[in-house]
Each structure stands twice: as C-alpha cells, then as structure tokens.
Write a structure and sequence with these properties.
Elements lengths: L5 H14 L4 H12 L10 H22 L2 H32 L4 H12 L3 H9 L13 H33 L1 H6 L2 H28 L1 H9 L4 H21 L4 H13 L4 H26 L4 H6 L1 H26 L7 H9 L6 H10 L5 H38 L2 E2 L3 E2 L1
Antiparallel strand pairs: 1-2
Helix pairs in contact: 1-2, 2-13, 3-12, 3-13, 4-5, 4-7, 4-15, 6-7, 7-9, 7-12, 7-16, 9-12, 11-12, 11-13, 15-16, 15-18, 16-18, 17-18
Length: 416
C-alpha cells in the first residue's frame, strides 16, 4: 500500500514544478526523493516501484515509435547512425584521456564516459510534446522544425540501440568472467556480432510483419468496435515484441519502439486511435518511472560533494554540447546549420538509463559506490539544467533562422 502514496505526492510536486515553469517530470523525481531512502523512507517496496517504472519506459518508447516516420529517417540516417557513433567515440576518448591523467583504469573511465554519453529520450519527448521544441502534431509547420525534431529522435533511437549493446556487453562480464580476466578480444567481437545479428533479425521480422500482418490484425479488431479490445491488442503487441527482443538478448526498449513504429508506419486513423488509447497509460506509468529515478538521488551526498558535482556536471554538459556541435557541423548541410544548436542542447544532458548501467556495473564490481553515486548526481543535475539550455538554444536557432528574412529574403524570389 505504500506505493499508493506515490501518485498524490507526485501530483503535488509536479503542480509546484509546473507553477514555477519546470517540467512536471521533476515533480515526479522529487516525489521519489521525498518518499525514498534519502527522504522520509516511507517506501518499502522499492523493487515494485522500479518494476512499475519499467512499464513507463516501455510505453514512452512505444509512443515515440508511433510518432516517428521512417520516411524522415531515410533523409537523416547518415547523421543518426554515424553521427551518434562519432559522438559516443569522442566522449569515450575524452573519458579515457582524462582517466589516464588521473591514473584511472581505461576500462573504468571508458565505461563511465559511455554512460554519460547517453541522452534522455523521455526528457526530449516531453520537451517536444509540450511544444517547447518541434510541434510534430501540427500539419502546418516550418520544414526546418521537422528536420531537427526528426534528427533528435533519430540520434536518440541510435543511442537506445547502443544502450542495448552496452547492457548486453555488461552481462557478458558475469557470464564470461574468465574471458574478461584473460582479455580475449575475440570473445567480445563474437558477442558483438551476435547482438548485431539479433538486431538485424528483429528489424527484418518487424518490417515483414508491419507490411503483411499489422493491418489485418487491427482491421479485425476495429470491426469489433471495442476500445477495450483495441487497447489490449496494442499492449499485447508491445509485450510480444518486448519478449522477442529479450529472448534474442536485444534491448527490450528497442522492441517497444519497433512495436510503435510498426503501427506508425501505416499513418492512417489507426495511429490516431491507438495514440488516444495508449497515451494515458504512458502518462500514468511515467509517473512511477521518474519517481523510481528519485529513489537513487541522495541529497546528503550531493550537499557534501556539491562543488565537485556542480563543476563535473557543467564539464559534462559543455563537452557533450561541443562534441555534438562539432559532429553535426560535419554532417548537416548549410541550410540546416542553425538546427545544430537545438539538437546539441537536446543531447547535452545525461540519460536516466545511466542509472541502469551504473547499478549493473556496480553489481559486477566494475565501479565502486562513490563512482555510482557520482554518476547518479551528475545525471540528475544535468536533467535539471536541461530545460534552461534547451530554451537558450531555441532562441539562438530562431535568431539565426530569422536573419535571412531580415536581410531581404523572399520565399518567392529568394534574396533580393
């Protein structure tokens, strides 16, 4: 029954955050801090709350898949794939270099850098849905807005793919400890090949199912004229893909996104009907997800190491922002150049999934408790600073986009 208190406290905290201009998500996190071990310690069923939180992640990514268009991904696949890998590589190289300066093992520093290189998909989706970024649900909009909205989602999706690979590789430390000690590179190359093969298999299967089965499946359900059956059918599809990807040792989060994309590929009334039914479920479970994030935030540790944490957080944000700007400057055409500021700002925070990676790495004794708490603190502070950087980047991008018009640009004649 202690979990029942999460919703009332989350509502009050999110109300306060909304009143001061912060996303409601921070209110949900604050409720976890208040009710968790670092606050009143009211919650005893932490595992149950974290389990409910996982459902929040699944439905959030399913909703992302519904809204995402593969036609847009075709235009930006080079930036999404190679740009994401370049950003990750830059972060890891910087992390390893700093680790060598401070006499830290490259294995540890590379892992921490990989954790910090990930960005929060749910946070960016909240920005976009609330109109703080791209208004993806409006038909009349600036084409450049669609570009940076799709670009952000494309990069974040690729980061989710890398997340699945990182989780799978971490699991190999437990199952292949002898190989880890011997440092056999071949074992990890084979493991990586298996993961990539599984991902390709899942995507091929989903493309075939989307083209030949999904329409028939939902056509029969719609004939029943039952919202209940449509909801259950949608959730059943999510959990089926989730189970398939789990069995194949692929990221379950990726399976949820693919389930949404299979439906979203049809772009008809079906998508609208499923969105109306699934979005309330997503919002409900998202409360538990962000509250579970708050359980791992320790204000006492943050207060004791506040100066170090703040400087490290700013350093991570600046490095991620500059690395993204550098990579995007190489990949984006000139007409989309102003978009690099908004995209880089959206990627400058640290993903809440670093909590998952950090906890698993701690159980495997890859990192100690202090490093784990440091990752949690930097992640939380970066998420707190994210709205400010996001608004500043939008202002900068709009100013650059308006500059040609102020210099006499005409949509009919060009520059005059």
């Amino acid at each position: 029954m202690d979990i029942v208190m999460v919703l009332p406290v989350a509502f009050l905290c999110s109300w306060v955050c909304s009143a001061v201009g912060l996303p409601a998500m921070f209110g949900y996190i604050l409720s976890g801090i208040i009710l968790g071990p670092s606050g009143t310690n009211y919650l005893k069923s932490l595992v149950q709350l974290e389990t409910l939180g996982e459902f929040g992640v699944f439905f959030i990514l399913f909703a992302v898949g519904l809204d995402f268009s593969f036609e847009k991904l075709k235009k930006i696949w080079k930036v999404s794939v190679f740009g994401t890998m370049a950003m990750m590589l830059i972060m890891v190289l910087i992390g390893v270099s700093l680790g060598l300066v401070f006499d830290i093992s490259p294995k540890y520093s590379a892992f921490v850098a990989a954790c910090l290189a990930l960005s929060s998909t749910p946070l960016v989706i909240k920005f976009l849905d609330k109109g703080e970024g791209v208004s993806r649900h409006r038909e009349e909009k600036d084409p450049t807005e669609t570009d940076y909205g799709a670009l952000l989602l494309g990069i974040l999706i690729m980061q989710d793919v890398l997340l699945g690979m990182l989780i799978a590789l971490l699991s190999s430390f437990a199952t292949n400890s002898s190989a880890t000690e011997d440092g056999t590179t071949l074992a990890y190359i084979v493991l990586l090949a298996k993961i990539l093969g599984s991902m390709v298999g899942v995507l091929v299967m989903c493309v075939i199912a989307s083209r030949f089965l999904i329409s028939i499946f939902f056509l029969h359900i719609s004939k029943l004229h039952s919202k209940e059956m449509m909801t259950i059918g949608s959730v059943a599809l999510i959990f089926s893909l989730l189970k398939i990807t789990d069995v194949l040792h692929v990221s379950m989060e990726l399976g949820c996104f693919v389930a949404g994309a299979m439906i979203g590929a049809h772009r008809n009334e079906l998508v609208s009907d499923v969105e109306k039914l699934v979005h309330p479920i997503r919002d409900f479970f998202a409360v538990f997800f962000f509250a579970s994030v708050g359980l791992h935030v320790f204000p006492s540790f943050v207060a004791y190491e506040l100066t170090v944490i703040v400087w490290l957080t700013f350093a991570v944000i600046i490095i991620k922002f500059l690395a993204s700007v550098l990579v995007l400057s190489c990949f984006l055409p000139k007409r989309m150049s102003p978009m690099k500021w908004i995209v880089s700002a959206g990627l400058a925070q640290v993903s809440e999934f670093s909590f998952v990676l950090g906890s698993r790495a701690r159980r495997l004794h890859l990192i100690n408790r202090e490093v784990y708490l440091l990752i949690l603190s930097i992640t939380s502070l970066s998420l707190l600073f994210a709205p400010v950087l996001w608004r500043l980047s939008q202002w900068q991008a709009r100013r650059l986009l308006d500059r040609p018009r102020n210099n006499g640009y005409s949509s009919q004649k060009g520059f005059v």
